[in-house]
Amino acid sequence: MSTLPENALSAPPRASVHQPASGRPPGAARVALILLGKELRLELRTLESVPGMALFALSAFVIFHFALNRAALQGDLAAGVLWVTILLAALLAINRLFVADAQQGGFEALALAPVPPGAILAAKAAALLIYLLVLELLALPAFALLLLAQPLAAAAFGVLATLLLGDIAIAVIGTLVSALVIRSRARDLLGPLLMLPLLIPVVIGATSALSPLLAPHAPDLSSWLSATGLRWLAVLGLYDLLFGLIAYALFEFLLED
Amino acid sequence: MDSTQKPPARLLRTAWLPVTTALMIAAALALTFFYAPLEAQEGFLQKIFYLHVPLAIVTLCGFVYGGLLAIAHLRTREVRYDVRSYVAIHMSLIFGVCVLITGSIWAKGSWGHWWVWNEPTLDSFLIIMLLYCTYQPLRFAIEDRERQARYASVFAITAGAFVPMAMIVVRLAPQYVHPRVLSSANNLPAPMGATFVVALLAFSLLYATLWRLEVRVKLARFRLRALQRLALERAQAPLRAPLASPGAPLLVPSTASADRSSGRRRQLAERGEVIVP
Hints:
- The structure holds two protein chains of two kinds.
- Chain A has helices spanning about 5-10, 10-20, 30-45, 50-70, 75-95, 100-105, 105-110, 115-145, 155-180, 185-215, 220-250.
- Chain A is mainly alpha-helical.
- In chain A, helix 4 (about 50-70) runs antiparallel to helix 5 (about 75-95) and helix 5 (about 75-95) runs antiparallel to helix 10 (about 185-215).
- Helices cover about 70% and strands about 0% of the residues of chain B.
- Chain B has nine helices and no strands.
- In chain B, helix 2 packs antiparallel against helix 3 (about 80-110).
- Chain B is globular, with a radius of gyration of 24 Å.
- The interface of A and B includes residues 194, 200, 242, 250 and 257 of A.
């Protein structure tokens, strides 16, 4: 906390907020970028979320190995294990997403500054998305090394596209739910209980898209897309879009006090 | 309010819905057991269709209705819309438990298992119920009343939009590629179709009756609490009549001695417009 002013001076975007050149407040997109920068800086300094998620994912792979008693997974089993692990790891970050704001006065500061609710939503969701992408950068190689029966490289594009669209859904729904439970007494319990049913359609879409890619004879990209891939990517994309709109419409009501 | 109307008009206004509901339920049951023909494959067991499917449709519509009322609450900030939304979801939860139980009975009789995973409507219904099971825990874990209503409305809208999405996505899932067992609702024979429509109408009316009853009870309880608070305030104020018995001063407003502002508050409270915990 003590290094904040120094950092504010060294970073031009923050300085320009304090002294806007034109005398007008910065636009929503710019505010969102600044808030995202704050989130990432906070995470880099405290390392509260991403290392824990990565370690959790690694432990989960080991647990799945022993619980299923398999040395190598493929097909729908592999897709399911990968998605359950990502989902549960995401819950760790979602539970922490607004804790600092609620406990250390972040909400009051945001209420005092002219910050549109959409910017806060976008910044938090983008931060969560980045955590998830970093997590997958670490967990996917570990998964391929520890549990996957065949090399992942052949199906890389399909896997990455599915993961990205699924991550967007987790990020958007996670931000909305996290803000929804932050003022309640039992938020650590309620957050996951609300998240999991809302994410079951995402699990259905993502595992259905992934399981042919992780099967023994993985189809090439175009035949995967034409068989099931494109349909499930479209379902995931539509789910992202709809929940993005819902969260955008409702987020302001969660920030009123 | 009701007290200004003549007794018969009052009775007519409050009683037509329950009476119609009772008649319709009786008609639906009579049609189910004496008019609708036995189904060729499942026989008598298929009669549960006239209970299970209407209940399920009413439940899902009730969840969506709760979401629409929550939109009205967020737009107007009126407490009554929050109460209506809460009651709609509460009623749907009760109906939903009945749907899961009747569905299980049907599955056991028809397929030999209490639960089957090859019926997408059943599965998406379970997911939706799992989500709505968190509505009341979330709501009552927030202490501030105004915030509680607001957050519950956000939940109700999100979950109401989730209902159709879950139905669609679950139905697309690959394990349901084989033809559905219950997809024949459109080409029912005429007697079965007629029975189904009557049953659907009957259970919709049942939902409406219970919903209206609980909304009224809740609003009346709010008004009662407001009046009790008012009486307490008055009892604690100096130069007022001593508190004789807890119930008595509520219904006899002391018109002469009441000052203006508390008189206004009393009027508002009696109309149910001041609802503070």
